[in-house]
Write a structure and sequence with these properties.
The complex is a heterotrimer of chains A (431), B (300) and C (260).
Chain A lengths: L1 H6 L3 H27 E4 L4 E4 L2 H29 L4 H18 L1 H49 L8 H18 L3 H20 L7 H21 L1 H4 L20 H27 L2 H11 L1 H6 L4 H27 L9 H14 L4 H17 L7 H15 L16 H9 L8
Chain B lengths: L1 H31 L6 H22 L3 H28 L7 H22 L5 E2 L19 H23 L1 H11 L1 H6 L4 H27 L1 E2 L3 H16 L4 H21 L5 H15 L14
Antiparallel strand pairs in B: 1-2
Chain C lengths: L2 E10 L2 E11 L4 E5 L6 H8 L7 E6 L7 E2 L5 H7 L1 E3 L12 H9 L7 H6 L2 H21 L14 H13 L5 E5 L7 H18 L2 E5 L3 H7 L2 E6 L2 E6 L1 H6 L1 H6 L8
Parallel strand pairs in C: 3-8, 3-9, 6-7, 7-8
Antiparallel strand pairs in C: 1-2, 1-4, 4-5, 9-10
Helix pairs in contact in C: 3-5, 3-6, 5-6
Classes of the chains: A mainly alpha (431), B mainly alpha (300), C alpha/beta (260).
Chain lengths: 431, 300, 260
């Protein structure tokens, strides 16, 4: 039992742990030896031996394996056991917080504080901070959009960034050729993103989810390759320069002003996304998404049109990427295909997975953490992708629901309504 | 005509490489129904291990043939060990969760391994030593076949035959087939399913490593990123042939190899990758079970 | 006649799982389909509900008081909308959703709200959503699990999960309910409660019921007519007494307990 393991030290158990961990670290030392210790440079014909790295590997995997095993066992015990005292206390404190938040005064105070923070941020933080935050906000929108497809609809989509690219290119090209302004480009970008997302869904409608993963990946690569090679339209790898920044009719803004302006555009867009996604979630279509994710066979047997529901999730999800893409193009004023590699899609996937699939606060947290932390910890930046990979695996093994797990909505049914229903009811089973 | 033959041979070479990778995909998919996104990374690690070993051995002064043999063998052993470890860490714990979890875990693994090699080695392209000796008799052909192409084709053929024999006639092959049909039933009949899955990863990874060494000798350069595209292409080949089917994977690989090579040769080399993906999408629309795959029946 | 199946055949590769089966269910009747394991009962069910596309044969249904219509090769969600609802042998609930939400999905095919309605929340959508909660809750009360409305479905006791499946199927407003082994895994008390529930559903809601079942005591007490399948073929039809005495049935079940 997990609770006993945490409260009572069991020397023998830990000895067994230590022995296993030692074996694991020896295994990893051998496994990683050629790659970690020897560096062969075939250009200069030199070989560097980095013996000190073995120490890191042995130490790291020893501790790592210990922690891994500990959590794995807790997870196994947790599935069988009822709540341990620690989890009970945790649940109790969560309930207290939830109750406090429900009190109107507290809720109003919280919202006011958040609003103040959001509005004050660009003036306090300065241009550099504001830019970083705007990037993070773009990823919040992308994460929430992808969340419709993955978190609600349960379809693994790993080409999401293609719609972002299409949104960005729609604005850049329409502006270049026809002088379309930023505000009109927004709906166009959303439409392009949504329609393309629908279109790639069609071939895999009848197929299992895994195929969607590979087809979306393929689509994203095709999009990037076409953008790179169709130079007469897209200007190829050189990209498109001098894309106009967003402007309010006639008024010329300085660079810091524009930065702040774009920040607020993004704040509004995030608010809009939260609003829409939240409404979708708590509606007929949101229920269909989740039911489809849970069990698509039962779902269609209950009369839900799976094909339509899948397409709805894809279309509604793709839209946000197109929308965000327009802002991206307008903000950086320069776009080229290199900004839209598969790895960008995977970063968005990470934000959804880390935060919590299907949960709006989860995805927002995930996006902010994954984008802001590497920005502020520069030393850590080169390990960014390595850690992202590790995060994906660890989350799936230990907490597939993400940091902030989605809780299903509870409906209240008044006593009077209950009575009406109860009169026709069955005495039922004694639970 | 020589142009055509040249493209034909280059398609055959590509196909052979894809086949070595696609076999691993198809075997893993056949047993645990998982697209192992990290399979291409295993191939890349195999190539890197061989490169490192070959550098060390050539400084030690061994001759090319012994270096090739030793480096390939060690690369296969190491890749097999990576495949085995990867399965234990990233796939076994999520085997009973939703399929989405396993797929995401696989993507995570792929990302991790790529960056592990990038950080521990280099992000630049490294020239890969020419290990494959020149065969005189190939010079007499009217169209160009390099020694590397020849070796690749022969190796792939041998590996395919060995794998087919393994699966058809050995005990472990029977266990694999049983486990891929129905894991619970196989378990009840005394098949150690965990061991069968581990073994599948080991065999698949070793085959991929062989592919890694051969293709790198052929292209002459590697970096940490080579596994990703090759992995995706091999997956396309496996789907094309009918995922889960070993002859299908081989057939699919050759079809894909030729499509790319003729597409690049006669249409445009810029869109080489696009041809591969276009074929994938077409297959999924018109024959989702692949060329040699059986249509799947969903269980209700 | 609410269900009329003619010559239904289903092949999987070379294997014929269902072989020219004719089967009828009359209005207000409780009909059972029995047979040894692997006889093709669930496959037959899946063909009728559109999960599988049958190789040959026709399926015709008629809501009492309306014209008959063919539903062969129709997609499953459309068949459900026509008024055929089913449960599953190995319970298939939406396990992470609440009990009430499960039933709300059952109501889905009777709703009209669209995506735009969900976003702007116009009066019609709000009213429909309120109504669907109430209707769904009433379904839960009807099968006796109303108190668990906001519980996550996977946390329900086994018997209640079976009832939830029935409530979810009823929410689609069927005239014919297909139950795939509704008593599987239940104890005798739960089974007796289930029999009472099924009977009550028929009389109160004018349902016709077609079920697959292994529990012989349940089949014999509940059904008015029994079809027996073996190796994909129909081998006997009749009331419980006739079927019990039929030599071919006894032969098919040899080794299995039919005396109960």
């Amino acid at each position: 039992m997990s609770s006993q393991a945490t409260t009572q030290p069991q020397p023998r158990r830990y000895l067994a742990y230590a022995r296993r961990s030692l074996l694991v670290s020896i295994w990893f030392a051998i496994l990683t030896f050629p790659i970690i210790v020897i560096r062969a440079n075939t250009i200069t014909g030199t070989i560097t031996w980095r013996w000190h790295n073995i120490g890191w590997i042995v130490g790291g995997t020893f501790v790592g394996s210990w922690i891994w095993r500990y959590f794995l066992e807790r997870k196994r015990a947790g599935a069988a056991a009822t709540m341990g005292p620690l989890r009970q206390r945790l649940a109790a404190s969560r309930a207290i917080v939830a109750q406090a938040v429900r009190r109107p005064a507290v809720a109003r105070g919280g919202i006011a504080a958040l609003l103040l923070l959001v509005v004050a941020f660009p003036f306090v933080g300065g241009m550099y901070q504001t830019n970083i935050m705007t990037t993070a906000l773009l990823y919040v929108v992308l994460g929430l959009g992808l969340n419709i497809i993955i978190g609600l609809g349960g379809m693994l989509h790993i080409g999401y960034i293609a719609f972002y690219a299409l949104g960005a290119y729609s604005y850049a090209l329409l502006n270049f050729h026809f002088g379309l302004n930023f505000w009109l480009a927004l709906p166009v970008g959303a439409l392009v993103g949504g329609l393309f997302s629908l279109a790639i869904g069609i071939p895999v409608l009848r197929l299992r989810g895994d195929y969607l993963a590979i087809v979306t990946l393929a689509f994203a690569e095709i999009t990037r390759l076409v953008l790179e090679n169709w130079s007469s339209l897209t200007f190829g790898t050189a990209g498109i320069r001098n894309i106009p920044r967003p402007a309010i009719a006639g008024i010329r803004l300085t660079l810091p002003q524009t930065t702040t302006f774009v920040y607020f555009i993004m704040i509004l867009m995030v608010a809009l996304t939260i609003f829409v996604v939240n409404r979708l979630e708590n509606s007929r279509i949101g229920r269909q998404f989740v039911a489809m994710k849970e069990d698509f066979i039962a779902c269609q047997a209950m009369g839900v049109n799976i094909a339509r529901t899948k397409l709805a999730a894809l279309g509604l999800g793709g839209m946000w990427a197109g929308l965000a893409g327009v802002v991206f193009a307008a903000r950086t004023t320069f776009i080229n295909p290199a900004s839209f590699t598969v790895w960008e899609s995977i970063i968005v996937l990470c934000t959804v997975v880390l935060g919590g699939m299907g949960s709006i606060p989860g995805v927002i947290t995930g996006a902010l953490v994954l984008i802001l932390v590497p920005e502020y910890l520069r030393a850590f930046a080169q390990f960014r992708m390595l850690l992202f990979g590790a995060v994906l695996v660890t989350m799936m093994v230990f907490r597939p629901g993400g940091l902030i797990q989605k809780r299903r909505r509870a409906y209240t049914i008044s006593a009077q309504e209950k009575q009406v229903a109860g009169e026709i009811g069955d005495p039922g089973i004694q639970g | 005509m020589n142009y055509f033959l040249g493209l034909f041979v280059s398609g055959l070479t590509r196909g052979s490489i894809y086949a070595l990778l696609a076999l691993g995909y198809t075997m893993v998919y056949g047993i645990i129904e998982l697209i192992n996104f990290a399979h291409g990374e295993i191939y890349m690690i195999g190539a890197f291990t061989a490169l490192i070993l070959a550098s060390v051995l050539s400084i030690a002064g061994l001759d090319a043939i012994s270096i090739l043999v030793i480096a390939s063998l060690v690369a296969m052993i190491y890749s097999a060990a990576y495949g085995f470890t990867m399965e234990k860490i990233a796939y076994k714990p999520v085997r009973n969760s939703q399929r989405l979890s396993a797929l995401i875990s696989a993507i995570g693994m792929s990302l991790f391994l790529q960056n592990y090699v990038r950080l521990a080695q280099t992000s630049n392209f490294l020239p890969f030593p020419t290990l494959i000796p020149r065969f005189g008799f190939l010079q007499q052909l009217t169209f160009q076949v390099t020694s590397a192409q020849f070796v690749i084709f022969v190796t792939t053929t041998v590996v395919m035959i060995l794998l087919t024999l393994l699966i058809k006639f050995t005990r472990i092959g029977k266990s694999m087939r049983a486990a891929s049909q129905d894991k619970t039933m196989a378990m009840l009949l005394g098949v150690n399913v965990n061991r069968v899955i581990a073994l599948t990863f080991i065999i698949g990874s070793a085959t991929a490593a062989l592919g890694g060494v051969l293709i790198s000798s052929f292209t002459g350069q590697i970096n940490f990123y080579i596994g990703f595209m090759a992995g995706i292409k091999a997956f396309v080949a496996a789907v094309l042939g009918g995922i889960g089917s070993i002859p299908g994977a081989v057939l699919g690989s050759f079809v894909l190899g030729w499509t790319e090579s003729f597409g690049a040769g006669y249409i445009s080399s810029d869109y080489e990758d696009v041809f591969a993906f276009a074929i994938l999408v077409l297959i999924l629309i018109f024959k989702p079970s692949g060329l040699l795959g059986r249509p799947e029946n969903k269980k209700v | 006649m609410v269900l009329d199946v003619r010559g239904l055949t289903m092949d999987f590769g070379g294997l014929r799982a269902v072989d020219h089966v004719d089967l009828q269910v009359n209005e207000g009747e409780i009909v059972a389909l029995i047979g040894p394991n692997g006889a093709g009962k669930t496959t037959f069910f899946n063909c009728v509900t559109g999960m599988y596309v049958p190789t040959a044969g026709t399926v015709t249904i008629a809501r009492p008081g309306t014209d008959a219509r063919q539903i062969t090769r129709m997609r499953p969600h459309l068949i459900t909308a026509q008024g055929l609802a089913r449960t599953f042998q190995n319970i298939r609930l939406f396990s992470e959703m609440t009990v009430l939400e499960n039933v709300m999905i059952g109501r889905d095919c009777r709703l009209s709200a669209g995506i735009l309605g969900a976003i702007v929340r116009n009066r019609k959508t709000v009213a429909e959503e309120k109504q669907v909660v109430l209707d769904s809750y009433a379904m839960l009360e009807m099968v006796g699990i109303g108190r668990w409305a906001n519980e996550t479905a996977k946390n329900l006791p086994y018997g209640a999960q079976r009832r939830l499946e029935i409530a979810r199927a009823l929410a689609t407003e069927p005239f014919l309910l297909l139950l795939d082994e509704p008593a599987a895994g239940m104890n005798p008390q739960e089974t007796r409660d289930l029999v009472a529930l099924i009977r009550r559903l028929r009389t109160d809601h004018h349902l016709s019921i077609f079920l697959i079942e292994h529990d012989m005591s349940l089949v014999m007490t509940l059904s008015e007519r029994i079809y027996v399948m073996d190796y994909g073929k129909l081998i006997a039809v009749g009331d419980p007494g006739e079927v019990r005495r039929d030599p071919s049935v006894i032969k098919a079940y040899l080794g299995e307990d039919v005396s109960a």
